[in-house]
Design brief:
Elements (H helix, E strand, L loop, with lengths): L10 H12 L7 H4 L15 H19 L3 H31 L4 H16 L3 H17 L7 H16 L3 H19 L18 H35 L6 H25 L18 H17 L3 H19 L5 H19 L7 H25 L7 H20 L3 H18 L2 H16 L1
Helix pairs in contact: 5-6, 6-7, 7-8, 8-9, 9-10, 10-11, 11-12, 12-13, 13-14, 13-15, 14-15, 15-16, 15-17, 16-17
């Protein structure tokens, strides 16, 4: 019978296999338990140009701060300061300097910039004068009207430059010559250089002629206004320490007032506005009322300083009348100042010898009138409120109150004078007006001695 036999491994093989399996670890290694990583070859990536530049910059930044801990902040501060300065210069050039030249042709503006540099920055009268002359020459050649605001303004600027350099006599010469040219143009005797050389075609000749006539009609008011200003500036220069000629100074102020009054009469006869230009809203034409009043009061102030009250009072009255007509029911502090000035002049006139049949009565009338004008000044000032009311109103009230006290003292009314002086002192203390306090104290001491 066929029988199966079992295949058996040799003992040595079985024991050997069992021993090898028993030596295996019961748990897998940690490296095998985690995600195995494929075998990779190590490789080096080259840096781009930008990365190299960035790394170099970072390294340089660290080095420069470490090597220059003081110098670098100073350099950065200097750079920031320079940037701010150049920005400011550009801003001033764009907002202030540039607009002054936009009315001039570019070649004229270029010459003027040179002239202004040698006037404002590096004062050099010869170089500045040469540049101003060049600007005038180019302007006339390019057809600018010789009595336009721009051309006349250049001539006035020349005088201002000479005055700044201490050359007062040369400045006076320029202003006198300019004034003479202006008056020749106003009176129709001089149309200026450059105008006669202008050629006009036949087809548009009539239109151009009318435009020129209209321009010169408007320009007449403008240059006449400048003539008044030149006369007042001449008075200032003649009175300066450089010249000290009071007679010529007074003559210049008289000429300014005569120009104002003559033009006022002409305008009134033609039905034109007393102040302003040909149109009521033309603020850049003829003098406004305040400017006319200023010319009158400047001359009145000179006469007051000379104790020539009979000439000062009419000028102040005329100026006051102009201001009252212009301001109506809304007075300004200018009226208060003038009212007090009239009171002071009348009080001064009362102390001088009076030629009259009854000098005593005439003096009393002057005192009474002075009191009324001083009280009027206080009453008008009381109607003026801020923001129109300013320091002039307050100091004029103090002066008017003090003048009333002085008038009472002069008339022998000691109690009334003391009350008014004390009131003037109190007002001065409230305003911080030291001159008023000292004058009131001196007056009170004088009364105490009497």
């Amino acid at each position: 019978m066929f029988t199966t036999t079992t295949l058996r491994l040799p003992r040595t093989v079985t024991s050997t296999l069992t021993r090898r399996l028993s030596t295996l670890p019961k748990t897998p290694r940690a490296s095998l338990k985690t995600h195995p990583q494929p075998f990779q070859l190590s490789q080096k990536r080259s840096l781009s140009t930008f990365q190299k530049w960035s790394l170099g910059l970072k390294q340089a930044k660290r080095d420069i701060w470490r090597k220059n801990p003081i110098l670098l902040p100073l350099a950065l501060f200097s750079a920031a300061t320079a940037t701010a300065i150049f920005t400011y210069i550009a801003y001033v050039e764009y907002t202030r300097v540039g607009p002054q030249y936009h009315k001039f042709p570019p070649p004229v503006a270029e010459a003027l910039r040179t002239a202004v540099y040698y006037t404002e920055v590096d004062l050099s009268p010869p170089k500045a004068l040469q540049a101003y002359k060049e600007a005038l020459r180019i302007g006339i050649e390019m057809g600018m009207h010789p009595f336009s605001d721009e051309v006349v303004g250049i001539k006035i600027q020349v005088a201002m430059m000479l005055e700044r350099a201490g050359l007062a006599k040369a400045a006076v010469e320029v202003l006198e010559r300019t004034k003479g040219e202006i008056m020749g143009f106003v009176e129709g005797k001089d149309h200026g250089e450059g105008v006669t050389g202008v050629k006009i075609e036949k087809e548009d000749g009539e239109e151009k002629r009318k435009e020129l006539e209209e321009f010169e009609k408007q320009q007449r008011d403008r240059v006449l206004k400048k003539a008044v200003g030149i006369e007042m500036k001449l008075a200032e220069l003649y009175s300066s320490d450089y010249i000290q000629d009071e007679k010529k100074a007074e003559a210049a102020q008289v000429a300014a007032v005569e120009l104002c009054l003559k033009e006022l009469h002409r305008r009134q006869s033609l039905g034109l506005p007393v102040g302003g230009g040909l149109e009521a809203d033309n603020t850049e034409g003829w003098l406004n009322v305040t400017e006319i009043a200023t010319a009158l009061t400047d001359l009145a102030g000179r006469y007051t300083a000379q104790e020539n009250y009979e000439l000062s009072i009419p000028l102040q009255m005329r100026a006051l009348d102009l201001l009252h007509t212009e301001e109506g029911n809304t007075p300004t502090c200018k009226q208060v100042v003038l009212l007090n000035s009239v009171a002071g002049c009348m009080a001064g006139q009362a102390q001088k010898p009076i030629r009259a049949e009854d000098p005593k009565k005439a003096r009393e009338q002057l005192f009474d009138a002075a009191q009324q004008w001083a009280k009027k000044a206080i009453d008008v000032a009381a109607k003026i409120q801020p923001p129109v009311r300013d320091e002039e109103c307050d100091t004029s009230c103090v002066a008017a109150t003090f003048n009333l006290g002085w008038l009472a003292e002069f008339q022998g009314k000691a109690k009334e004078a003391k009350r008014l002086y004390e009131e003037a002192k109190s007002l001065s203390q409230g305003l911080g007006f030291e001159q008023g306090v000292s004058m009131a104290d001196a007056a009170l001491k004088r009364l105490a001695k009497e």
